[in-house]
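re: that chain from earlier
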Amino acid sequence: MTPATAIPGTDTAAIDALVGDGPAAWDAAGRIPVALLRKLGAAGVLCAEVPAALGGLGAGPLANGELTAHIGALCSSLRSIMTVHGIAAATVHRFGDRAQRRDYLGQLTSGRLACVGFSEPGAGSDLSGMTTRIRPADDSSGDLLVTGEKMWITGAVYADTVLVFGQYGAGPAGAAAMVPTDAPGVGIEPVKDPLGCRAATHCRIVLDDVRIPASAVLGGGGQPLSLLFTTALSYGRMSVAWGCAGILRACLTAATADARTREQGGTPIAEHQLVARHIAELYTSEQIATQACRHAAQQWTRGAPDAAVAAVLAKQVAATHAARGAATAVQVLASRGFTDGHVTARAYRDAKAMELIEGSTEISQLILARHALDTH
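^ sequence. v structure.
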């Protein structure tokens, strides 16, 4: 299956032409041209699962996954923007009312960009530590106020809207609110010199009594935070997993091309058994990651009870293999792949970030262990 044939109207050759040789320069500069992001957003590429009736491409999880892997092979920073934009769209589609779905999904498929505010300085995977509050304003306006701080927010410098997760009112329930990034009280501060996915940007967002209308709170608020997070993170984990499959495909392409053409002792290095072993391991990693992603996509399509766990498994398998596979590709290319600007050097840094985001490797292991203990 190729994304070009799986999603009507999606031309990966056109995406390739738009991206061109930009990723190396974007990585060095720490920025992706925002006009490119808006163009891809308006084409529906950044949230391809949005139904056609709501302005999207109507892709299923598998087709969207293959498209994500294709973009991930081109540029993990671009794929990261695709991930957070897609999380915002998926959350709106799941929790928004009819008017919110029509309004916000229409925006997200017409060129406006979104990011997602999960993590806080004292709350990563521990939801009980979340301090962001979404509460009624102390007047008769019916508006709400959003107060808190979010950290490591991908793509905030490009976003028109940040999907903020927080405690709702005075009770234990949660809410997800669509907050304009240009609203009074919103402050965005990029994190300097991140290790990986540099062009996606990672930011600190301060929310100082940001006033929003009640219509900006998806579904009226009051949902369990665990439900909000599981829904949003499952989409994110699937997207990251497919992106890692893309990293492995890019590394495999670079490593095999180099091994076929570079010689040592008058022989292509691919003929040396130890180098051939590296190539075999890289190919194996790409296949394993892809199969884990496909399984998770199929579980989501079927609505299987273990779909959320399958997403965790795919992310865990694909991220760990991507980190190991990128290191292997650098080993094969040696000094050629050791400098910034080369696809394998970028993959090496980007893949490490994938072991941390959307639930670290350790958090994923705890979830998988708990599932195994409960079901076996």
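The chain has a mean pLDDT of 95.
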